[in-house]
Predict the structure.
Amino acid sequence: MCVLIYRRAPHAADVTPPLRGEPHMVQHGEKPCAFQGEDRSENTFSPPEEIPPVPRQADRSPEFDCPATAPADQITTALDWMKSFLTTPHPDIGRKGAVCPFVEPAMRGRTLHIQHRRLPPDAAPAHISALVEDMVHTFATARWNHPNKTLHALVTVIDGLPPHRTTVLDDAHPLIKPSLVRRRLMLGQFHPTCPETAARNPDFPVSQSPVPLLALRHMAFHDILFLHHDPAYFTAYAQTYGHRYRRSTIPDPHFTDLYTRACRTWDITP
């Protein structure tokens, strides 16, 4: 049985006036499991083949604590897309395994939190930036069911944007990313026409979702795929995960190649 717990975000702060209103949180957990890092106190990422199974918890009845106006249909659409697309393999992703290796373990660990926010139809990048800062606050103050930070994910389902305005998420992303990376956070934007492509296949638009949404999580080991091309981004990554490369225990040689080339390009000592 799929269990959804709708609850208000603890200590969630209001942001700009167009975004004012308490977000409605959904904690989704279908099967208990977790990302298992080498050290649960650090933001480590283990590839799916390294994640040991965890016994299933007893099913629980749904609990609801949200206004009657909560957009359950949008949240359901987002969850259905995550389960039918992100948690399954795809021939165009360029590697084995699920499209996103984070989603299913986060669902199993009951640490995929979903909230809903409404934006004005003419939202600008500044509105997105304010929303993301609100997400960061919610992310930092939420109560998580597992101590390993790579399990923690906050998804904001967005409504109010007409179809031709969802690209504001793409416009805002590069403006927001530097501040997030400095805080060892990663943000993904998703919407029906999102041009972002798979890291290993530039012809596959992997971030096209049926409803606009933003996803926030901690920086993970595999983020070398998204951070090697910029000196500031890569420096933050190397400071966080360089010790793992020095131990030479990297399961994917592609990661090692990207890390070595980035060190050489940006004149950083491995």
Q: What stands out?
A: The helical segments are 72-86, 103-108, 125-141, 168-182, 224-227, 231-246, 253-265.
